[in-house]
Amino acid sequence: MASERLSQLDKALLGLRSLILSGHFDLNQRLPEVAVAKHLGTSRTPLRQAMDRLVAEGLLERIETGGCRVATFSKEDIADAIEFRGVVEGTAARMAAQRGGNPGLMAEARATLDRIDQALDPSQEIDFDRYVHENAKFHALLTRLAGSPLIEREVARMSRLPLASPSAFLSDQAMIPNFQDSLRFAQRQHRAILEAIAERDGARAEAMTREHARLALTNFNYITTHQPKLANPVPGLALVASE
Amino acid sequence: MASERLSQLDKALLGLRSLILSGHFDLNQRLPEVAVAKHLGTSRTPLRQAMDRLVAEGLLERIETGGCRVATFSKEDIADAIEFRGVVEGTAARMAAQRGGNPGLMAEARATLDRIDQALDPSQEIDFDRYVHENAKFHALLTRLAGSPLIEREVARMSRLPLASPSAFLSDQAMIPNFQDSLRFAQRQHRAILEAIAERDGARAEAMTREHARLALTNFNYITTHQPKLANPVPGLALVASE
DNA sequence: TGATGCGCAGTTGTATACAAGGTTTATCTT
DNA sequence: AAGATAAACCTTGTATACAACTGCGCATCA
Fold first, then answer.
1. Which of A126, A220, A241, B229 has the greatest count of CB atoms below 10 A from its CB?
2. Which residues of A lie inside 8 Å of B (Cβ-Cβ)?
């Protein structure tokens, strides 16, 4: 299959999002459309479409007088985003439990958790990349288990917010003390969530999923208070008001 | 103050949304940009911006080959949207309770509920318009009480979905049996929610707010099963697959 | 010297032109 | 007559031209 040629809009969208998250733009200053368009190698039309979408995503905010600027986030904003992602994922888990998870998806979820167990096998070194990959897959499956296109869409939306994704703090978790314990703890939560769904215990599934999201909050608090040297800085961290 | 002249984009957005919700377009058929643009009295550029936003809102969906068509919703979709709106509003209520509602907003909310009581005064005819207006205001205040811009934005987003807004089924509730009872019941829930927030009982505030949203579900089920003749059809009903 | 008004440059919002691709119709062949 | 192929038309995606507006700087006046 020949490589999909991506549209100008996708090029602008991916490029602009990455520029924003990497902190390429001055905060509190309007992005000049012509310059950015030239930088991305496209024209203003697809760029403005991309900007519209990023405004909807919350990464940009409109200026009353015209144009956009990069949005900044307070620590409270990030905490709320993480908490809210937990709420939405929790709703997915509850719905999955109430509606009885699709057997095929349930089997796939169990297999995914088995693979995470292997990645965390105490008898050898942790396979970090594999953990990250399978963790993302588990969360995606959890969302689909709800059987609601709306819920799936909304979880995806929330996960696009900076620092709110289930994988946001995994990129450099090696810098966090006891991160191996943290990953194993997370995996026990994964098991509990899936067990609750299998037993159709909606309340437990929802509560556990919310609690699981709070791990990200812990990581965020650690990073902002200790400000460790990060080899691969968490994308979006540049947008958090240091204050 | 001179009347704000609205931009071409706003004109296109409002006009297109209203055309869609009123069922003006054939479902399963692509909207022709030029024709719609001419109909709305604008050019293709702002119209396409509006279409982008309505895709993000979920009212339109993209066609693989290009362009958009009107989205249709199953009954399950609508039920999920209502339930999810309850979840998000419930989160707002819980946050308000946990964080201690801003006193000014709390006072305003109480005053709004007093006005709803007046609108429902049993000694005279129900002031329906006033109820609708103050009900919307109460829900807006509830959202702001959370003290989180993110939550406020997300509730607003959900309320824009067809049939998911707290006011969606009020437009013609007179057609629903015992609607006066229903309104009084809703008002008691309003009181309970505010009381829970005042007492910082987050769990109760959240549960009550979710339950409150389910009233809309009842109305929706009634309308879809009994299909009463509606004087002012609920906007968006045309998009629900009759099946 | 400070403040106010005017003008210019640069920016965004909107319209339109153009090109690539899809859809339909008509014609030709079997 | 039916199916396939080709051509013309229409539609969208993209670039660009244009106009209105904002913001800044400079000059002028009090």
1. A220
2. 45, 48-49, 52-53, 56, 58, 76-77, 80-81, 84, 87-88, 91, 95, 148-151, 153-154
Nearest DNA or RNA nucleotide to B6 (CA to C1')? C13
State how far residue B77 is from chain A, nearest Cα, in angstroms.
Answer: 7
The count of C-alpha atoms lying within 13 angstroms of the C-alpha of A193, restricted to the half-sphere facing its C-beta, is 34
The answer to whether the CB of A89 falls within 8 A of the CB of A213 is yes
Compute the distance between CA of residue A130 and CA of residue A115 in angstroms, rounded to an integer: 8
Burial class (CB in 10 A: 0-12, 13-18, 19+), B29: exposed
pLDDT in tens, A25-75: 988 889 999 999 999 999 999 999 999 999 999 999 999 888 899 999 999
pLDDT at A50: 96
CA dist., res. B72 & res. B70, Å (int): 7
The nearest CA of chain A is from the CA of B84 a distance in Å of 8
DSSP states of B201-237: -HHHHHHHHHHHHHHHHHHHHHHHHH----SSPPTTG
